[in-house]
Amino acid sequence: MTKTNRFSLVSEARLDGRLFLAQALAHGDTLGSIPREQADTLYQNIAAIAHKLITMKTRDLSDESGLRTQIQTAFTLTSLGLEYGSKGDLDKAVRLLRKTRVVKFFQIGNTLAEKLLDRVRYLLEHGVILPPSRDEERALGTTYTDLETEGIQIYTQAELDFLKALLTYRTTIRSLQVTIRDTDVPRALIHLSEIDMIDQQLACIENRCHYVKALPSDNLFALDPPLSIFPNPIEHLTLGLIVNLVLYRQADFQLDTDAREDFHKLAYEDGEIRPSLREQLLDWIAQYLEQAHQPEPVKAYAVSYWDDCLRMEGRQASPE
Known about the structure:
By secondary structure, this protein is mainly α. The chain is built from 13 helices and six strands. The strands form three sheets. It has a two-stranded antiparallel sheet. It has a two-stranded antiparallel sheet with strand order 3-4. Strand 5 (268-269) and strand 6 (272-273) form a beta hairpin. The longest helix has 25 residues, at 102-126. It is elongated and about 75 Å long. Residues 144-148 have low confidence and may be disordered.
């Protein structure tokens, strides 16, 4: 792609009318508060930001999709910064646009986004339970050749897609979920409320990491079949723990078909977990994490997670 075409893409790009920035400009135009010349200048300044992003982050200038992504990012972050600075008040946003350089709003939006992205990158790197051979080999000089050596991913595939989408300032969810199950195709961030929801969704995954890593992990890599083959390994691990607690009164994770069926017969009625058993199980995990010195957010999330796992398992237990 030539330099001329790159600039043409920026000049032809249009603000998404759903963006707070677009709404503020339209509001200012209605009030006559932002002259057309100033609006054009604002747009040119955003275009300059887009050009800088393209220069910094796009290696292949023939990749039109990549160029459009950076242009959209310039609009998105500027809009988020303006919405944050004005607290969502259109009148205040118009006043800010009149007296503040637009790059300031971009910087605010970029700071908000980067805080989330730092957490995303950390989760992508650390959201996994590593096998003992990797943790203890250096310290003990021991290898675990008889154990499954692949790490156990704490987030699901849908959550991995969510995390990867965030790296390009997009999201795949429309509502907060204990475990991400319902997703859309990745779409650009529009409003600050989505940032708040993403913040809470990341906290869910982070708290699940703390919950899982507080569990006894001595035999996780000796389970047959290995947890790493399951699309939702932590839900399977949790169900294994629940079944063993209910049937055998012991904290173990091995789960077979017969034990699962026995658990269904004992624990569910018409697809609903028996209330007294539900209460006992949720109390057990709360007390366990209390003794493991986990903070309140981790305990609260784990209780919600167990409740969600029990509800999902009820679908398997309900008669056809």
